[in-house]
Amino acid sequence: MLSGLKTLMTGVAMAATVMVAAQAQAQGAAVKTEVTIDASKATNVIPPEIYGHFAEHLGRMIYEGVWVGEDSPIPNTRGIRNDVTKALKDLGVPVIRWPGGCFADRYNWKDGIGPRDQRPVTINTIWGGVEESNHFGTHEFFDFADQIGAKTYIAANVGSGSPREMSQWLEYLTAVDNSQYAKLRRENGREKPWVVDYIGIGNETWGCGGDMTPEHSADLFKQFATFADNYNPDQKTPETRMIKVMSGANVADYNWTEVSMKNRNHNVHALSLHYYTSAGLNWPPSRPSMGFDEAGWAVILKEALHMEELVQKHSAIMDKYDPEKKVALYVDEWGTWYKTDDETRPGFLYQQNTLRDALVAALHFNIFHKYTDRVKMANLAQTVNVLQAVILTDNEKMILTPTYHAFDLYKPFRGATHIPVSYEAPKYTHGDITLPALDISAAKGADGTIWLALVNLDPNRPLEVNTKALGFTAKSANGRVLTADKIDAHNTFENGSVVAPKPYEARGGNSGLVLKLAPKSVTVVQLK
Ligand code: AHR
C-alpha cells in the first residue's frame, strides 16, 4: 500500500507532505482521510522523561504494589516484588517520582531509615488514615529505582518540614565524605552515595502541600532551594546537576504560573503542572472507571485533550518571562482520576483501567511530543494500583493494564525527533461533544526510521488513512495495534489479555499506503 510514495529523500533530510481530506460516511463505514508527513521539518528530540512515572505512599501503590517484604511468599528481591520490577524494567521507566504527592509534605525521611523493625509506625493522614510501617524508605526506594533502571525524582517536605531536615536528607543521600549523615548512611548499609536526579521542592503548595498563595509559595521555594545542596562533587556540572522543581499550577491556574515565573530565581530549573483527566475539571471524582456508556467515552477523551490548551497557555506565560526556555515545564502528575472502585477504602484511589485509558494516554503522548521545547518531563499518576496505573495487583497476582500497553507501544518515540504533522481530522460526534476522530504523532528515530502513532477516537467507525508521502520510499507499515470489542474492555486477574497489542501490517499499493485503523484504537507503526 506504500507504492504511491515518492522518493524525495536526500541525505538525512527527508520531506513528505501531509494532506488530509476527511469524508464522513455512514455509521460503521470507513471514514477516508489523506495524510502527508513533512519529515524535513523534524524539530525537537522527545525526552524519554515524558514517559515518567510516579509512586506515592497511597493505597496499595507502595505496600503490595512494590514492597512485599523479604519474608513474603511473593517472589522478591530484597523485599521488592519481582513481577512488578520486571514489568517496569521491560517498559523502561525513565524516571520515578517518590514519596508523594500529598504524602511527601507529611513525610519525615528519618522515619524510613535504619533497621526496619525499629522504624516508627506513623499514620498516613492524607490517604486513608492507615498505619505507615515505614518499611519502604530511602534505601528501599533507591534500590527499587535501581532495579527498574529509572532516574530518581524525590519530593522534599516543604509543607510541614524544614530546610534543615531536607538538607540533612540530601546529605544522607549524596555526601561522599565523613559527615554525620554520610556515616549514618554507611552504618545503614549503603557505602556509596546515590544519585538524586531531580528534587521537587514542594508539592501542590496551593492545596495539600500547605494551602499557600503563589507569592508565599515562591518565597518558600527560594528559601528551601537555597539549602537544597547536592553534596556529591560529581553532580555539580550543568549536565549532571540535581534539577530543582518548583511546585506549579493546578489545571488552569494561570496566575500561579505568572507569579511563580515573575518571582523565580536561578534555582528554579523546572516548574510543575498537575492536571487529572475528569477530576481536574470535575471535583470530586464521580465518573466510573468502567461500565460507562458512549457519553462517558466521549467526555473523558474530550477532557484528556484539554491538556493541550493547558500546556499551550502555561507555556505562553513561561515564554514571557523566560524566552530562552531555561525553565522546563514538568507535567509531573497526569492521568485519569475516577470514582474509586473500592468503596471500602475510598482513600486508596483504586480504579480499573480500560481501553479508554489507553487512548487517554496516547492522546497525552501526542500532545507532549508537540511541546518538548518546554515540556521536558511528565509523570503518570500512578504506577501500581492507584489511579491510571500501568499495573494492578491482587496479592500475588499481577496484570498489565491497557495504559501499560500504550506506554509500551510508544517506546520508539523516546529520544526520537518529533515531526509535526498537519491534517484535517474527520469528526467524531456524540451528543453535544464533537472531537477530532483522528490524532496523529510522527517522529524520526536515530536510525532515520519514521514512526507514526495514530489514535482513532471514534468508537464506531474505522478510518482509512491514505498516506501520500513525498520524502521517502515506504513500501509497508509494520507495528502494533491496541483495540478491543468494548469501549470499557479491561484486563482482569482471571484474564489478563483482554486488551493487549496485536501485530499490525499494511502494504503499499498503486494508490499509496492506506493505513486501516480500527474504531477505538491506538496504532503505532514504522514506515519501511
Ligand atoms: O496522585 C494523587 C494525588 O493527587 C497526589 O498526592 C497529589 O499531589 C495530587 O493531588
Structural notes for this entry:
The protein has 528 residues and is α/β, with parallel strands linked by helices. The protein folds into 2 domains: 5-44 and 417-527, Sandwich (Immunoglobulin-like), CATH 2.60.40.1180; 48-140 and 147-413, Glycosidases (TIM Barrel, Alpha-Beta Barrel). It is 22% helix and 24% strand. It is built from 9 helices and 25 strands. An 8-stranded parallel beta barrel has the order 2-5-8-9-10-11-12-13, surrounded by 5 helices. The protein has a 6-stranded antiparallel beta sheet with strand order 16-19-20-25-22-23, covered by helices on one side. It has a 3-stranded mixed beta sheet with strand order 1-21-24, with no helix packed on it. Helix 3 packs across helix 4 (180-187). The chain starts with 30 loop residues before the first strand and ends with a strand. It binds alpha-L-arabinofuranose (AHR). The site of alpha-L-arabinofuranose (AHR) has 11 residues, from loops.
